[in-house]
Amino acid sequence: MNELSEQQAFLVLNALPNIGPITLNRLLAELGGDPREVFIAGAGRLGQVKGVGPVICATLANWREHFDLAREEERMAQACTTFVTSRDAGYPKLLREINDPPIGLYRKGGYDFSQPCIAIVGSRRTTLYGQSVAKKLAADLARMGFCVVSGLARGIDTAAHEGALSVGGKTAAVLGNGIDIVYPPENLALYRQIEEQGAIVSEFPFTRRADKQSFAMRNRIIAGMSDAVVVVESDVGGGSMITARFAGEQGRLIFAVPGRIDQASSAGCHQLIRDGATLLTGVDDILSELSYLDGLRPSPIPEKTTGGTALAASNLTAEEQKVYACFAGGAMVSIDTVSGQTGLPASQLSATLMMLELKRLIAKRADGTFEAR
Q1: DSSP secondary structure, 18-76, as one string
Q2: Which domains does the chain have, with CATH numbers?
Q3: Deepest in the core among 147, 309, 324, 333, taking most CB within 10 A?
Q4: Which of the pair, 307 or 257, is modelled with greater confidence?
Q5: What is the pTM of this model?
């Protein structure tokens, strides 16, 4: 099967039936990481991999009977779609860490997931309160440089995408069907706007229809690519509870927005809070938890380069340079002082300070002031 390129081999493996992502990742690990080797290895070698039996061996040997590669590549070209493998720079970094990451994602839109992601999910049958909360949270997070991730579904998902887009922020829609299918159909205009300003991703090949299994697989991706998952409204049996469960298994932060005690649409959020999720009242709750955890995580070993902080400080926008200049000499500065010295509006200043924190150039102190690291 040497005629397959590495990219094509990834594409074929991702689309074949009977082979789940855990087995695919085992196959790649056992055969040196090159997907082409999976098609070259004989049944004896493949059978040594845990989870691989006669059915999977037969599927791999006769893959052309299950998948039309030429037709898929033609569809991708016509739909301006790329296939991002787990080795590519445009693949969400955190998603590589989960137990069963997809070996690749179909992607429409140019966004490359360079910013931290926060997921906002919830019920399809939502209240006006829930929609308002989701839009505001998404807009606030997008202003601060986060990419808002959701599933393009009716209700909370739609509100989250719209909130991020309303401030010119980044948002990503993860689909539970082929990337050529817009579901629900009334979200076609939103789909196109996300494609223009963010990204639409799916692990499923073209024409694949959604079902209960595909939606659950979609939910693990939403949680896996995000630093935190926010559930705005959900009943106890809602799909968002599955996303929250995946987030817990993957070690992600889980936030839940409280609602009325007499509404079923908030019962799931209240259960999550009872089970240990963080009660969310505003975006500051998310920032506090992320800052707290960042202080406990071991720092990566720095590369042996000269001028580490100076190098990071040189790669700043004009606004970030203006704000960072307020910390010259190791000063501990309040947000009011920074505002007075820079003249930046409050919303832009908050977003700029957040980006400097993410770049580890400044840190927020317990008393609310900031200082250079």
Answers
A1: T--HHHHHHHHHHTTT-HHHHHHS-HHHHTTSTT--HHHHHHHHTGGGT--HHHHHHHH
A2: 6-67 (1.10.150), 94-293 (3.40.50.450), 308-372 (1.10.10.10)
A3: 147
A4: 257
A5: 0.79
